[in-house]
Amino acid sequence: MRLLVLYGSQTGTAQDVAEQIWRESRQWGFQGPVLSLEDYDIQQLVEERLVIFVVATTGDGMEPDNMKQAWRFLLKRSLPSHSLNGLQFACLGLGDSSYSKFNYAAKKLHKRLLNLGAKSICPLGLCDDQHDYGHLGTSLAWTAELWNTLSNTLAVHKQKEQLLVKRWNVRVLEQSAPLDEERLQWTQRQAAHVFKLAENTRTTAADHFQDVRLLRLARSTETTSWQPGDVLEVQPQNSCELVKDFFDLLKEHQLQFDASTVVEVSSAHEDLPLPLAYSKPLSLQQAAKYIWDLSARPRQRLLEVLAQNCEDEMEREKLLEFCSAEGLEDLISYVNRPRRMLLELLQDFRHAMAKLTLSQLFEMMPLIQTRSFSIASDQSAKTLDLLVAVVNYKTIMHTPRLGLCSNWLKDLEVGVELRAAIKPGTMTWPKEAQTPLIMIGPGTGIAPFRSIIQNRLNLQQLGQNVGPLVVFFGCRNQSKDYHFEEDFKSWQENNGVEVHVAFSRDQENKVYVQHLIKQHGAHLAKLIREQNAYIYVAGSSNNMPKAVREAFIEALDNDVMFMEQLIKHRRYQEETWA
């Protein structure tokens, strides 16, 4: 019987969960592909009888990029309410409850499918990244219940012999044409622009705990354009040190392949698309540098594959235990809490590593995912600017945990070429430039607001009437992490922007942006109520967004209903990240 698994994924986690459900479906005797929603002709949904959706929520309650087109189709008013009468479905959402619009994309999809006549075969699953076990805290139990329901309703049975379902066929090429390395620097569908790095400077003091980088990218062509609020999507690469460690590990175990091995990868299933990264022959050196995420946290799929050939009973039992619901606490303690990397796990399971085959290596390695950064300059500026906080922190592991993308960007040398795509962000601006803007961007959250302020001031210079611009910025110390200090001074001197800055550690009592909002509450309330001001919040998703929202509610005479209306009509927008 056909079972289709569709996913909308932004960072790869939803795809990982969807592929695991697809593998399990094969063990239950089902046939059918696992596809991203952009790889599937959504108009064919009317012909389907059984579909599992796995959908992440990104940004301020938004659907992932590879779901947008399908979602637009499903929202068409012309679709009859009985369109999907023949469809049975189940929907699993991946979200983070620290965001106000928790699992919004999955909730909206579930509701829309019901409105179109489809029948839900089990309750909507809502995974929460804040759970001690992450998404596994919900997804494992939800999936088990899914198979139990299908077993009872369709009389399907799980096969006793548990065969590992593989995705790819890997063939070693003894001789090959010259390998195309340049294409591996960008393996996404969307066309990339080429930039040249003009500047890479640290904006924080040398003795400050956080390294923050200002990267200025020069456009290769004048046709490269963007709007305020847009983001730059980049595809990072592994460091030379990580790549060396990986091949040292292969050499230590005397495996039958090394950096120079060239392979051709094809799909093991007719209906399973091949990633663009594998569309042409490549060497393992190239895969390790450009394609595989060597610093990723190991997922259960990797452990499952690693256990397959392991002849050491203790290691095999431990790996399989990690893959079970019963071993979840041990897995979280071993991988998630210390932020253990994939390479470190391979070093720990030496017997399993010694039996690894080339096919298994490709099967278990996660692909590097792109990262997006708010563009911090207007198109009228000479360069496209990024403000990037470099991720570097300690756990119980003996080496610091380094963010793959931010450290890659930090180490880029001036003059190097960079391929990246420009994409719309989640923020939408009022159509009239006269509408007042109130912007709250502590830390690197200031980036998108520098872009819109530059844009509005440029319009002003061109003779357009521009409404009031109010910006709140926060950091620890004026002398340590005051990003874009010269910009703030220039804005204030020109009287074009009303600037409020909170240096939380420069006085005995900590002062944050929410305190300044309360201080200027009457003025802000007047802008909001009388001049229809728009409010934008960007930055860390920890405590700041909630505290800022509460400060605005207080400024609006505790009118919670009015705040809800602002949010509903997109006059209050948040773009936050964990």
TrEMBL record:
Record-annotated FAD-binding FR-type domain positions: 190-430
EC number(s) on file: 1.18.1.-
Keyword set includes Flavoprotein: yes
GO molecular function, one term: NADP binding
GO CC terms of this entry: cytosol; nucleus
Cellular localisation: Cytoplasm
Domain of life per record: Eukaryota
Positions contributing to NADP(+) binding: T444, S504, R505, K510, V511, Y512, V513, Q514
Pfam families, per database record: FAD_binding_1 (PF00667), Flavodoxin_1 (PF00258), NAD_binding_1 (PF00175)
Family designation: Belongs to the NADPH-dependent diflavin oxidoreductase NDOR1 family. In the C-terminal section; belongs to the flavoprotein pyridine nucleotide cytochrome reductase family.
Function: NADPH-dependent reductase which is a central component of the cytosolic iron-sulfur (Fe-S) protein assembly (CIA) machinery. Transfers electrons from NADPH via its FAD and FMN prosthetic groups to the [2Fe-2S] cluster of the anamorsin/DRE2 homolog, another key component of the CIA machinery. In turn, this reduced cluster provides electrons for assembly of cytosolic iron-sulfur cluster proteins.
Name of the protein in its database record: NADPH-dependent diflavin oxidoreductase 1
Upper taxonomic lineage: Eukaryota, Metazoa, Ecdysozoa, Arthropoda, Hexapoda
